[in-house]
Amino acid sequence: MYDDIVRSDSSLRRFLHGLPGVDQVGCEARAAGLGTRSIKTTAKAYAIDLAIRMVDLTTLEGADTHGKVKALASKAKRPDPADPSCPATAAVCVYPDMVATAKQTLGDSGVHVAAVATAFPSGRAAMDIKLADTRDAVEAGADEIDMVIDRGAFLSGRYLDVYDEIVQVKEACGDAHLKVIFETGELQTYDNVRRASWLAMMAGGHFIKTSTGKVQPAATLPVTLIMLEAVRDFRDQTGQMVGVKPAGGIKTTKDAIKYLVMVNEIAGPDWLDPDWFRFGASTLLNDLLMQRTKMTTGRYSGPDYFTLD
Amino acid sequence: MSRIDVRKTYKLYIGGQFPRSESGRSYVVNDAKGRLLANAAQASRKDARDAVVAARSAFGGWSTKTAYNRAQIVYRIAEVLEGRREQFEAELKAAEGISQAKARSYVDAAIDRLVWYAGWADKITQVVGNANPVAGPYFNLSTPEPSGVIAVVAPRGALLGLVSVVAPLIITGNTVVVIASEENPLTAITLGEVMATSDLPGGVVNVLTGSVAEIAPWLASHMDVNGIDLTGVEDAALATELEVAGADNLKRVRRPAPDTDWLVEPALDRMTRFLETKTVWHPIGV
């Protein structure tokens, strides 16, 4: 239904620049306001378990080893070995060469393997290399591909190039789900975040994701709010649902719950599901587990009782 | 027109900052004659949790400083305290209803206590560490190491008791969360101001004011607290409860001693109770 819009660079630009501008002050105030909700007792317990189920447990370091990925995958399957009632995370997120290792450890546990591809994190490589990177990860067994957009092209207004790139990567993904990373810390304005969201959704991304985690600022509440508005409006127009994944900088249970409140209030309860909302995080999981232990045992726990990762 | 009084707001001392209680509560502190002195912040379990997080993050840096450096910093606390002695004497007189001479003797003793413990920083290892004789070609060396984060219930009294329980813990490299005397919490916060301006890294000492019965059980059961000093606990039933709660993660516990005479020169046990002995075997080169 967007064929007319993506017919040419100028029609696409006209559409993206015709999107309503973001009221920066209003957006930040709304995000801050939603962050003050008090979530306690049973609601908090529900939120913590939901947040654990939404975590894409991530390790994207140059120093990653097969051993570390195996340990991470085991943790994703059973985050709290002392408590069988603790749910598994949604996925583990690794570099393409670690996909096979992660897949082997996860087996048929239902925990997905997500791989970052397309010359992550900069996205600076030739198109065929990006596609090969993607196919490589999918062949190794990745269930989800996290691609980065070409921010250089986006910022210089070559929107159609970005669109085509997403379409081609999606083709290369086959059955794997595609998450499109904007790196909002490099997009400069909230208006650009809204434009990038629509661009990625029109190109067929299954998820839109804030950041790589390699650039500061990473995920913030206002940016996520804009993306949640975009997926809500997109569903109103097309009937298609797109997921949202804030990644980077979400470290505490308190932060995670703020995001969940925002999902519920902005996009709606349909998005309160690991299929439609994810957290890209590593340290967040331990804090969620500590809070969970606090709620089940009635005493504060400490980092000594959870794995380092 | 007369000048309006500028009154001090007594807050908590956590992680080098002076925050209000997360709960927004405060309680009335009276002087020895029952007249209003000030309102003190009434800490909640979440303030205690934040204090433990601050103490834990300060532990790495503090425990790896050289003993010599820790001594300098504790000595510096004594220096700054000396410079503000009039303020402390006035606060002691108001809080405890004692004479000027007695207040001065308590401040003197508190300063001297800090200097005394500062001197122990680079000596305690020689006294309680050892080269153990073993039947084999090894050096066998035992050295004391700090336990970690220690929760302390400070004894009655505005200054000397508090200094006497905190100084021996930090000088050996532990970090501390201390619940100040419930009746006399104000001087503890003023002491926090002294520490904050004495090169003591934020989080090494954290001061909570409020109800011991409310806060102490959360610290006793906290899995990230390595030891608990119950010196100031006066209620025997509460002390037992705290000791039981502390058993879950094998905390080191120091039993209550509310009637200690703090003017007497202390023994070494306040330092040694919260030290772990590490023993290493090292082959002798042949």
Automatic annotation (TrEMBL), chain A:
The keyword ATP-binding does not apply. Pathway: Carbohydrate degradation; 2-deoxy-D-ribose 1-phosphate degradation; D-glyceraldehyde 3-phosphate and acetaldehyde from 2-deoxy-alpha-D-ribose 1-phosphate: step 2/2. Keywords: Lyase, Schiff base. It catalyses: 2-deoxy-D-ribose 5-phosphate = D-glyceraldehyde 3-phosphate + acetaldehyde. GO terms for molecular function: deoxyribose-phosphate aldolase activity. Pfam families: DeoC. It is an enzyme of class 4 (lyase). GO terms for cellular component: cytoplasm. It comes from the Bacteria. GO terms for biological process: carbohydrate catabolic process; deoxyribonucleotide catabolic process. InterPro entries: Aldolase_TIM (IPR013785), DeoC (IPR011343), DeoC/FbaB/LacD_aldolase (IPR002915). SUPFAM superfamilies: Aldolase. The keyword Membrane does not apply. Its EC number is 4.1.2.4. Belongs to the DeoC/FbaB aldolase family. DeoC type 2 subfamily. This is Deoxyribose-phosphate aldolase. The gene is deoC.
UniProtKB/TrEMBL annotation, chain B:
Transmembrane segments: none annotated. InterPro entries: Ald_DH/histidinol_DH, Ald_DH_N, Aldehyde_DH_dom. SUPFAM superfamilies: ALDH-like (SSF53720). Keywords: Oxidoreductase. The keyword Oxidoreductase applies. It holds the Pfam family Aldedh. One of its GO terms (molecular function) is oxidoreductase activity. Residues 22-237 form the Aldehyde dehydrogenase domain. It comes from the Bacteria. This is Aldehyde dehydrogenase family protein.
